[in-house]
Amino acid sequence: MSTLTADIRVTRGGFSLEAAFSAPPGITTVVGVSGAGKSTLLLALLGDKSPASGRIGLGDRTLFDGKSGIDVPVHERRIGIVFQDALLFPHLDARRNVAFGMMGGDRPEAWLERVGAVSLAARRPADLSGGERQRVALARALAARPEALLLDEPFSALDPAARSSLGTLLVALQREAGVPFLHVTHDPGEALRVGDRTIALDRGRVVAQGRTTDLLSGSLRRIAGIGSDNWLRGTVLADGSDGTRVDLGGTVVATARLHRAAGEVVVLALPAEDVLLARGEIHGTSARNVLAGEVVSLDAADEGVDVVVATPVRLRARVTRAAVSELALVPGARVWLLVKASAFRAAD
Question: pLDDT tens digits, residue range 101-117?
Answer without folding.
Answer: 887 778 999 999 999 99
